[in-house]
Amino acid sequence: MKRFKYNTGSSCPSYYGITTYEQVMYSDSDEMIMIDGVGSLRSPWGDGGVTFIKNSPSENSVPKTLNIGYYSDTEDQFYEGEFQLPSEEIEKFLEEKSKNFGVKSQNINEHKYDRIEIGVALGGMIVVWMKGEGEQREVGKYNAKIVKHHWEDIFDNGTREEEVKYNLEKVFTNKVKEEVLNKTLPIDLWEKYREKFSWNYSVNVPQNAVVNSVYLKMINAEAETNYLKISTDQPSQRAVPYQAEIIWTLNGKRYESRIIFAEGENYYNTIYKATIASSDNPYPADLTKEEIYQNFIKIKPGHPAELIFNLSTSREINVNLKQENTSFNIRKITGKTFQQ
How many CB atoms sit inside 10 A of residue 243's CB? Predict the structure, then answer.
């Protein structure tokens, strides 16, 4: 039986806490593969917290089933589920070699994917991703079912009533507290994030400049990095992006352009400056309200679109979404270019 070196992780959306009491995978031979992070899951969605808390890769078999049980803090509900994983597809991801010719990794024989990430959202939504350096791909989406439990059979701290009261008074943001009290939780929000559109990117840089790499992070937590030193790619099915990093060189100087598709410094600082503790709202609560998403849903279904990045050494960044004769200027961004 093949074994691969990979680690595991778990996450939940920001502001909508999940507390797991079971999260484990099993191989075809019933080998137990523990999923890191049991208990209060970390956010943001699809990322399982910051880098330094992730476990070290260990050799494991390919998982075939996923067992999960958890309490949804905002819904005040228990959920459980046992799911069949696409083990053959997971094995192909684990076998795939990296094509990273960039600075971060010079060893082209490295495996491209070395982490299995589990995401838990409202309404019983479970998502499984394969993850690597600058890469993340969804391999499965499942639905856990509501189950009934006595609180004391699962948790040994306090009562259910005390937990609900504490969350309302001390944990939930004002927005989430209103949603809980008014029964308006955004149950289908992360399903909306999974919607995909046909689009490609194009990068315009000054004359004689070379694009070295393009990294894209989408709102469904998928990510990709292109190291092929090309300024454009072919249309493919992708979710709406919320982050881009473009490395380019000109006259021996190296530049990094960072684009966050949200206004204000909070989101940018959370990603790049680790200032999450100093911000009440470090992540946008609903990415479908951002300008980039609102423009994507205006494009014609089934017709490819192009996301155009215009970069310069003067630090100006301009982004447009174009489809045929229609063009949308994406104004609500936080963009910065640095000479490295």
Answer: 20
**Selection from 331, 319, 52, 98 nearest residue 213 by Cα:** 98
CB 308 within 8 A of CB 233: no
Taking the model in full, what pTM does it have? Answer: 0.92
Backbone angles phi, psi at 207, to 5 degrees: -55, 135
Task: Determine contact, residues 129/136, Cβ cutoff 8 Å.
Answer: yes
- The mean pLDDT values, 10 residues at a time, for the chain of 340 residues are 92 96 96 93 82 62 98 98 98 89 52 95 98 96 98 94 97 96 98 97 95 96 90 91 96 95 84 62 86 96 95 92 96 93
For the beta carbon of residue 260, count every other beta carbon within 10 angstroms: 28
Taking the C-alpha atoms of residue 313 and residue 320, their distance in angstroms, rounded to an integer, is: 19
Distance CA 230, CA 193 (A): 28
From 184, 176, 134, select the one nearest 280 (Cα to Cα): 176
Q: Which residues of 153-177 are buried (b: 16+ CB within 10 A; e: fewer)?
A: eeeeeeeeeebeeebeeeebeeebe
Compute the C-alpha angle 316/318/324, nearest 5°. 160
Three state DSSP letters for 13-52: CCCCCEEEEEEEEEECCCCEEECCCCCECECCCCCCCCHH
Could you please report the per-residue DSSP string of 239-279?
--EEEEEEEEEETTEEEEEEEESSSSHHHHHHHHT--GGG-
